[in-house]
Amino acid sequence: MTDPDVAVVGFAQAPNTRQTYGTTNGVEMLVPILHEVLDGTGLTKGDIGFWCSGSSDYLAGRAFSFVAAVDAIGAVPPINESHVEMDAAWALYEAWVKIRTGQVDTALVYGFGKSSAGDLRRTLALQLDPYTTAPLWPDSVGIAGLQARLGLDSGQWTEQDMAAVAARCRTDARTNPHAQISGAAEVSELLAEPYLADPLRAHDCAPITDGASAVILADADRARELCARPAWITGLEHRMESGNLGARELTTSPSTAGAARAAGTDGVEVAELHAPFTHQELVLREAIGLGDEVRISPSGGALCANPMFAAGLTRIGEAARRIMDGSARRVLAHATSGPALQQNLVCTMEGHR
Amino acid sequence: MSKHLAAVLGTGQTHHASRRTDVSMGGLCREAIDRAMADAGLDWPDIDAVVLGKAPDLFEGVMMPELPLADALGATGKPLIRVHTAGSVGGSTGNVAASLIEGGVHKRVLAVAFEKQSESNAMWALSITPPFHMPVGAGAGGYFAPHVRSYIRRSGAPDHIGAVVAAKDRRNGSRNPWAHLRQSDLSVESVLSSQMLWDPIRYDETCPSSDGACAVVLGDEDTADGSPGSVAWVHATSMRTEPTTYAGRDQVNPQAGREAAAALWKQAGITDPLSEIDTAEIYVPFSWFEPMWLENLGFAQEGTGWKLTEAGETGIGGRLPVNPSGGVLSSNPIGASGLLRFAEAAMQVMHRAGEHQVPGARTALGHAYGGGSQYFSMWIVGTDKPGGRR
């Protein structure tokens, strides 16, 4: 738990779509949402004390894609700016730290990813050990399939449990205009579908998404000026696990559990979980200790729109939105990175204090 | 000024070389980390978080190498942030690590930066031409040579100034046991007789391609006060970014660099950098960037930086020794080069720079830049606590 001296005061996201026709540096997706998130707070780009983004050169298929993304800002005069080669949830972490130093009072965080530009499953295989594992090209769906199989064989979950996650997310996504996938779904219908990569069916896997999102953070004084109901950050923690898949117990998530414990999860009403695969939501709920009373991913979650390098930040934005619109008092957001939930971040936020 | 003070407790680096085929990426990082931990007198349980910086992933051919490297970096079970701000990334890595302490989030943070260029091909990685972008095609030398030519034309600097820098930095590098190039016999004349690569940049005025890593351990005020050795207090940090191209952009003396420096001096309470800074580690990958950055940073008026260089004021023993370590011209593991500048600045004020120590150095600048001279990160470290406190 930390002093809640920083709050989310604005959030915007681009349409999540299977394929955009813009460049891989995200500018076409970012320009509208940077305007939207600034307009929502009444701030202009010159008011922002610190900028931080998250993206991946490998996704963009080029070096320095984030450099070109700065063109979306119009950084003249120059800006105080940084970038993480991670999901932008970690860019939000860096910005949160920056505000806590007292050097700046506001920060704009954005993330973008154009997954349609390449073959995402194979690209993500390059996150594995380059000497021993990556040359075998185990792709991201295959690795998630191994993880799902471990849980099925040990009796930790069933294919019905997994399909129930997909059905709930798709049903919830019907009220999310930004969702890529939505619609009423019955578990029995989903289970009648063929396997994509046994034991995973298409509904168990997040879609391939092009998208972007943006969040504005502010310190205590500015947050009260900029937002009627700021989402005060009460805990923000993240942890890493080994990169050696064989060294991990893949049906649990100790990094998520550790981050959640440190962030403090008491009284959470809504949890937006970054689970790109249905069984990973089950792992995460167990690790965080979320009971049946907690509303899970009412946006439809990453299973209904998964813009790489923005989806984690989007979870924080979606959770914060429930505070800002007055529909929840205490919320949790989660972000993940790396193969099979290797690295995890937990952010808790609350309303009026 | 930040809410909490931060200080460098220890630094470490590898032997830098064209091809460190004797170690993996993890092994390379670990060499630097183990030395930094020993220098700081700390062990793994003391470390709260890890910050990793490196330049584009295409340089090694691994997407987000911090993921497979988590164990080697000692990050397993801990928070890890991966920073990437182009060539300035090593500096940004130091600044982000410092901010984790200045923000009161952690007490002891390990910053690591590396590049293992021999794993892939940096020239290829830099030459991919995305749609709608002006192709670079000639690597960094071809990109920056016109900026140097423009500087020479604008400042009226004599042609040999670049050679003065190259000879000085390589001589300094010969006093640094970690340096990739250790050329004590280089002279202005020999540099001027080396092959022209990208007019006006000659072969001996160009940085090498290196494999290498650097690590810095930072701590909070309590930890630093209790440190068995000397520490380097962080007096100021700054970062600025501007677009690669825009109408009227000055690529020789970029506004982002000028504003980053102005913010840095203001934060540190420095009004006359040339008098108040004892030594500077400045990112000089091509010799002429020494006078260019001396002006951009405010050590000299525009058009006059070369006079400091020509007069020998940037050598060890001069008014402002620049790159006593040998700088980027002697070792260039790209992603680590910025953190090496920051670490070398700290080593100077900790009086642990060995044969390339600037006598009596108490306040030092670390500087890095990247992209098309558009990303800047800097810090000032001092023997004394900020504000003159001891």
Please give the alpha-carbon distance between the first and last residues of chain A: 15 Å
Name the largest protein-protein interface in this structure.
A-B, 69 and 68 residues
> What is the H level of CATH, i.e. the homologous superfamily of chain B?
Thiolase/Chalcone synthase
CATH superfamily of the largest domain in chain A: Thiolase/Chalcone synthase
Plain-language structure description:
Chain A: GO terms for molecular function: acyltransferase activity, transferring groups other than amino-acyl groups. Chain A: It comes from Halopolyspora algeriensis. The complex is a heterodimer of chains A (353) and B (390). Chain A is an alpha/beta fold and 353 residues long. Chain A has helices at residues 27-41, 57-60, 65-69, 88-100, 120-125, 140-153, 159-172, 187-191, 220-226, 254-263, 278-288, 311-324, and strands spanning 6-13, 50-54, 81-84, 106-114, 195-197, 200-201, 210-219, 231-240, 270-272, 295-296, 330-337, 343-350. Chain B has one domain: Peroxisomal Thiolase, Chain A, domain 1, CATH 3.40.47.10. Helix content of chain B is 33%, strand content 18%. Chain B has 13 helices and 11 strands. Chain B has helices at residues 25-40, 89-102, 122-127, 139-155, 161-173, 188-192, 221-225, 255-268, 273-276, 289-296, 305-310, 327-330, 334-349; strands at 6-13, 49-53, 80-83, 108-116, 196-198, 201-202, 211-220, 232-241, 279-281, 363-370, 375-382. In chain B, the strands form 2 sheets. Chain B has a 9-stranded mixed β-sheet with strand order 3-2-4-7-1-8-11-10-9. In chain B, strands 5-6 form a two-stranded antiparallel sheet. The longest helix of chain B has 17 residues, at 139-155.
Concise summary:
Chain A is an alpha/beta fold.
Helices and strands in order, then pairings?
The complex is a heterodimer of chains A (353) and B (390).
Chain A: E1 6-13, H1 27-41, E2 50-54, H2 57-60, H3 65-69, E3 81-84, H4 88-100, E4 106-114, H5 120-125, H6 140-153, H7 159-172, H8 187-191, E5 195-197, E6 200-201, E7 210-219, H9 220-226, E8 231-240, H10 254-263, E9 270-272, H11 278-288, E10 295-296, H12 311-324, E11 330-337, E12 343-350
Parallel strand pairs in A: 2-3, 2-4, 9-10, 9-11
Antiparallel strand pairs in A: 1-7, 1-8, 4-7, 5-6, 8-12, 11-12
Helix pairs in contact in A: 4-12, 7-11, 10-11
Chain B: E1 6-13, H1 25-40, E2 49-53, E3 80-83, H2 89-102, E4 108-116, H3 122-127, H4 139-155, H5 161-173, H6 188-192, E5 196-198, E6 201-202, E7 211-220, H7 221-225, E8 232-241, H8 255-268, H9 273-276, E9 279-281, H10 289-296, H11 305-310, H12 327-330, H13 334-349, E10 363-370, E11 375-382
Parallel strand pairs in B: 2-3, 2-4, 9-10
Antiparallel strand pairs in B: 1-7, 1-8, 4-7, 5-6, 8-11, 10-11
Helix pairs in contact in B: 2-13
Organism (chain A): Halopolyspora algeriensis
Protein name (chain A): Acetyl-CoA acetyltransferase
GO molecular function (chain A): acyltransferase activity, transferring groups other than amino-acyl groups
